[in-house]
C-alpha cells in the first residue's frame, strides 16, 4: 500500500474498528499524522506567534496550537481506529491499545506489535489485508527454485 492509498483508506475508515490493517497502511498514516503535526506546528508559530506565560517567576514561551490542534482532533479517531485494526492483524483484541497507559513498557509493547508482521491468512478479525493465505505445506521457509529429487 502506498502513501496516498493509506491516507485515503484511513480517512474512509474514519471510525471503523473492525477488520485488519497492514503494516504499510498503519505506518504510512502515522507518517502523515506526524508530518502534518510538525508542519502545522511550524505554521502555527509563524501565523499565531508565541504566548509568554509566567509561572512561579519563570517565563515560558509556547506557540498557540490552533491549526495543529484542529488537525490533531481531525486525525484522532482515524489514528485510533487504524491502530486497533493493526492489532487485529496481529490477532489481538483492540482493547490491547489500553496497554499504552502503562508508562514506557506499554508503548514499547505496542511498538513491537506494530512493527512485526501480522498473522498470515485469515484470523479471528477477518481476511489477510495483504491477500496472503498459508499453504498446507508452508513451513515458513521460502520456496526453492531447485527441483525436488524424484519428482
Automatic annotation (TrEMBL):
InterPro entries in the record: DUF805
Residues covered by region (Disordered): 125-151
Alphabetic keyword roster: Membrane, Transmembrane, Transmembrane helix
One protein family per Pfam: DUF805
UniProt keyword annotation of 4Fe-4S present: no
Membrane-traversing stretches: 26-46, 66-84, 96-115
GO CC terms of this entry: plasma membrane
Protein name as it appears in the record: Inner membrane protein YhaI
Provenance organism: Aliiroseovarius pelagivivens
Gene: yhaI
Amino acid at each position: 500500500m502506498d502513501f496516498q492509498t493509506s491516507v485515503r483508506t484511513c480517512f474512509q475508515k474514519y471510525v471503523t474498528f473492525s477488520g485488519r490493517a497492514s503494516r504499510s497502511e498503519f505506518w504510512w498514516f502515522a507518517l502523515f499524522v506526524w508530518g502534518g503535526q510538525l508542519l502545522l506546528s511550524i505554521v502555527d508559530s509563524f501565523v499565531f506567534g508565541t504566548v509568554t506565560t509566567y509561572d512561579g517567576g519563570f517565563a515560558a514561551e509556547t506557540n498557540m496550537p490552533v491549526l495543529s490542534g484542529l488537525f490533531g482532533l481531525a486525525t484522532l479517531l482515524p489514528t485510533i481506529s487504524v491502530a486497533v485494526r493493526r492489532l487485529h492483524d496481529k490477532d489481538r483484541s483492540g482493547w490491547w491499545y489500553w496497554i499504552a497507559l502503562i508508562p514506557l513498557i506499554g508503548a514499547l509493547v505496542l511498538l513491537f506489535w506494530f512493527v512485526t508482521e501480522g498473522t498470515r491468512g485469515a484470523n479471528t478479525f477477518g481476511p489477510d489485508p495483504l491477500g496472503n493465505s498459508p499453504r498446507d505445506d508452508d513451513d515458513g521457509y521460502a520456496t526453492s527454485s531447485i527441483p525436488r529429487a524424484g519428482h
